[in-house]
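Final report, closing paragraph on structural work. Over the funding period we assembled a curated collection of sequence-structure pairs, and we close with a single example.
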Amino acid sequence: MIDLEYLAFLENILTDNRKEKFLKVLENRTKHFTIAVEDIFQMHNTSAVMRSCEIFGIQELNVIEQRYGKSIDKEIAMGAQKWVDINTFDSITNCLDTLKSKGYQIIATTPHENDCLMEDFDISKPSALFFGTERDGLSEEILKRADGFLKIPMVGFTESLNISVSAAIIIQNLTNRLRNSNIDWHLSENEILEKRLAWAKNSIKDINRIEARYFEENPR
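Its predicted structure, as stored:
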């Protein structure tokens, strides 16, 4: 449950422009789609995917760190890690089970005999879009448990794109279609309050001191 008094206290520290920007951005945030990346060896690609999620309004990025366990490249993410929720998993199975339990269908972004072109993809269902490694693609476990397969139409000689480029193209296309649809894709009221609180805390310097002082003066 969100402490509305504490939220109001923190937001009073922010400028009006900052608060208005939060609300405007949150109007376009969604969890209808979520992105998952699997064991990305070059972490600048994961950072770039995160940046695309932030720019195009995807609130959650799921990172499977089964083999490499590297950290986000903050220079490439350019602050996106402050605004996107990053869920990390130590195994493919754990990630798949968690996302399925949340009601997402698993969509593997890879050419497959039963694949679907991006423009034909059914956006009505909550979907977790999986992107694989640069070298090996998606794992066999994900391919076996996938509910569907999605690919980008290509007309040149080259048969593949860098993962961060692929993710940007797909995320932009699907989120744009989503916003022009009648689907209820927005965050819930409580989710918006949660993000307002988290983003306010991320925006205030010395938040730990301010938070400790507030709760000392306002014990619950």
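The chain has a mean pLDDT of 88. The beta strands are 33-38, 60-64, 85-89, 105-109, 115-117, 127-131, 148-151. We thank the funder for supporting this effort.
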